[in-house]
């Protein structure tokens, strides 16, 4: 329907309201009204109304409306809604309490925009807020000191909260994944911060170590902070004790890597405890010893990739030998690259000893430079070295290289779990689930939650900071699981597992996940997101405070969600 002006030869045009339609392939018009007699401004208003749905007078009224303030809201609603759906407020404390609301605010802020406690306080404050988080929780007046006090309150309740998480996610006889990581510390005043092994490449920084306990699906249950110079295996005993005495779980299978569950830990901490089993892997020297003793024959892998073997040095235990051809190729490539890089640096030292001016001399000086190179690339065992006062010579140890190459791609799973409880394939699969803890550490430290670096000076504040990040990862883990169809994550993992011909073979993504990665579109023909970019997209849903006219009462209006945003909120089972 539209307004049409029909010219007249000797008088003014006729103004008609008409409707155009098609009949038998011809365009025809039906006249509904003659509005020639109306004033021009009314005709113009009708024309605009029929064309755009808003009359000119309404447009003039709309110009009086003023947007007083807009606060990003969608990402807050998504995260805070998930927090409430998971029952986390009651998990923190059973009754309403300001400290509880502040902890919830810090958890949500850690997921949305991780930063210092001062930055978080600025996000919540009415004058400097950057979202609706503060007003939704009623904590707009909180400053950084109050947030620190809430952290102190939280760390006192850590044991109770972890007990509730364990009750929800751990059962008798379940698999428990455990691994340790570290992060660097800024400053020198914290008693937990020590010089130790840096997994972040910050060797000159003090370190803080923390161990993460997850269930078989990678959902975090508990975390504990240790001194930065503690060795990984010595942290295991405390976690075993925690599950038995605090969580009252008597039957459990611990899964840890070869550097965590060692011979000493098995002998001193695990063996002899009723109901406790474990799954780990052998170190390279142990694998080589099995080959030399004849317990492991490499011909086993001529026709198959997995076989159970026995050795008298491991009584009552199961040894499952595996060989991954792709892993063998990767290790061979990496070894050759390290050897070549080492030789390139050693050639520079050889040239320095032979130059005519200021030649490098002295066994100690030459040895220090050689040691620095070998320590960097860690392939010293593959070289024969000869150092004199004024010469340096090296050559590859082909025998050592060949011996290591024979074991490329071979690893042996060591377990106390009976075959009736877990088959060989299931045991290998259980060990491979440790990658989920590694994924948690990546999200914990870098990608999303940015645990590092640590600036807190008090030991309890550091523990509270690490525990707060664990709770944030707990919420994020559930969000990613729900949003998987919209993310690059594989939302059909079992279909991916079915594509593998053997459990030893590399993991395969499902066809649906490959389709998302290739087309960058979901099954609903929407853009595929990462978790971080999807949160950013949800953040474009804003809550605007609008004032119709000066001195008039204000009202709030939410942005209309896009179909993609509606889909995300639906998957999370939350509302705006």
Q: How many separate helices?
A: 22
**What gyration radius follows from the Cα positions, in whole Å?**
33 Å
What class, by secondary structure content?
A: alpha+beta
- How many beta-strand segments? 16
Low confidence ranges? none
The neighbouring-strand order within the major sheet is: 7-6-5-8-9-14-11-10
The fraction of residues assigned to DSSP E strands is: 15-25%
Shape: elongated
Oligomer category: single chain
End-to-end Cα distance: 37 Å
Helix content: 40-55%
Mean pLDDT: 90
What can be said about the biggest beta sheet? 8 strands, mixed
How would you explain this protein's 3D organization?
The protein has 576 residues and is α+β, with helices and mostly antiparallel strands. Among the domains are: 2-63, no CATH class; 78-156, no CATH class; 326-406; 478-572, no CATH class. The chain is 44% helix and 19% strand. The protein has 22 helices and 16 strands. It has helices at 40-52, 56-62, 74-85, 88-92, 98-112, 117-124, 133-137, 144-156, 158-169, 236-246, 263-270, 284-293, 325-354, 363-377, 398-406, 424-432, 435-447, 459-483, 493-498, 511-519, 531-538, 563-572, and strands spanning 2-6, 14-23, 26-34, 66-72, 174-185, 206-215, 220-227, 252-255, 276-281, 306-309, 318-323, 383-387, 392-396, 410-415, 542-547, 555-558. The strands form 4 sheets. Strands 7-6-5-8-9-14-11-10 form an 8-stranded mixed beta sheet. It has a 3-stranded antiparallel beta sheet with strand order 1-2-3. Strands 4-15-16 form a 3-stranded antiparallel beta sheet. The chain is elongated. The mean pLDDT is 90.
């Amino acid at each position: 329907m539209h307004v049409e002006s029909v010219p007249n030869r000797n008088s003014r045009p006729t103004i008609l309201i008409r409707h155009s339609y098609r009949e038998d392939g011809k365009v025809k018009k039906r006249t509904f009204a003659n509005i020639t007699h109306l004033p021009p401004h009314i005709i113009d208003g009708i024309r605009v109304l029929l064309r755009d749905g808003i009359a000119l007078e309404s447009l003039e009224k709309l110009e009086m409306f003023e947007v007083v303030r807009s606060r990003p809201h969608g990402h807050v609603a998504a995260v805070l809604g998930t927090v409430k759906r998971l029952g986390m407020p009651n998990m923190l404390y059973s009754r309403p309490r300001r400290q509880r609301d502040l902890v919830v605010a810090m958890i949500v802020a850690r997921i949305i925009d991780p930063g210092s406690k001062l930055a978080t306080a600025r996000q919540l404050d009415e004058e400097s807020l950057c979202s609706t988080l503060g007003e939704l929780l009623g904590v707009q007046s909180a400053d950084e000191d109050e947030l620190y006090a809430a952290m102190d309150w939280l760390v006192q309740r850590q044991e109770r909260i972890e007990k509730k998480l364990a009750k929800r996610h751990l059962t008798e006889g379940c698999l428990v994944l455990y691994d340790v990581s570290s992060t660097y510390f800024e400053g020198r005043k914290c008693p937990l911060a020590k010089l130790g092994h840096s997994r972040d490449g910050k060797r000159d920084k003090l370190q803080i170590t923390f161990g993460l306990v997850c269930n078989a699906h990678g959902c975090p249950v508990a975390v504990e902070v240790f001194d930065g110079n503690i060795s990984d295996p010595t942290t295991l005993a405390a976690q075993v004790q925690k599950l038995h005495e605090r969580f009252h779980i008597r039957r459990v299978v611990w899964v840890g890597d070869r550097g965590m569950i060692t011979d000493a830990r098995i002998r001193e901490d695990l063996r002899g405890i009723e109901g406790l089993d474990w799954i780990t892997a052998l170190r390279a020297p142990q694998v080589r010893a099995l080959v030399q003793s004849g317990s492991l024959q490499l011909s086993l892998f001529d026709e198959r990739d997995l076989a159970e073997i026995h050795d008298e040095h491991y009584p009552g235990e199961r040894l499952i030998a595996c060989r991954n051809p792709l892993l063998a190729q990767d290790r061979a490539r990496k070894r050759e690259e390290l050897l070549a890089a080492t030789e390139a640096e050693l050639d520079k030292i050889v040239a320095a000893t032979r130059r005519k001016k200021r030649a490098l001399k002295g066994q100690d000086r030459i040895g220090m430079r050689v040691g620095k190179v070998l320590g960097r690339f860690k392939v010293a065992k593959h070289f024969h070295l000869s150092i004199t006062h004024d010469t340096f010579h090296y050559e590859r140890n082909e025998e050592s290289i060949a011996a290591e190459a024979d074991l490329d791609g071979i690893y042996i799973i060591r377990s106390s779990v009976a075959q009736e409880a877990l088959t060989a394939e299931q045991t290998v699969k259980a060990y491979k689930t440790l990658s989920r803890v590694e994924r948690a550490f990546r999200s914990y430290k870098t990608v999303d939650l940015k645990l590092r670096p640590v600036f807190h000076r008090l030991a309890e504040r550091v523990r509270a900071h690490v525990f707060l990040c664990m709770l944030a990862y707990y919420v994020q883990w559930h969000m990613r699981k729900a949003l998987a169809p919209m993310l690059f994550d594989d939302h059909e993992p079992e279909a991916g597992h079915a594509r593998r011909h053997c459990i030893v073979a590399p993991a395969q993504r499902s066809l649906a996940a490959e389709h998302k990665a290739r087309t960058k579109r979901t099954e609903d023909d929407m853009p595929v997101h990462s978790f971080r970019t999807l949160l950013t997209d949800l953040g474009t849903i804003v809550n605007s405070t609008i004032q119709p006219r000066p001195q008039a009462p204000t009202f709030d209006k939410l942005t209309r969600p896009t179909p993609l945003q509606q889909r995300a909120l639906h998957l999370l089972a939350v509302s705006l």
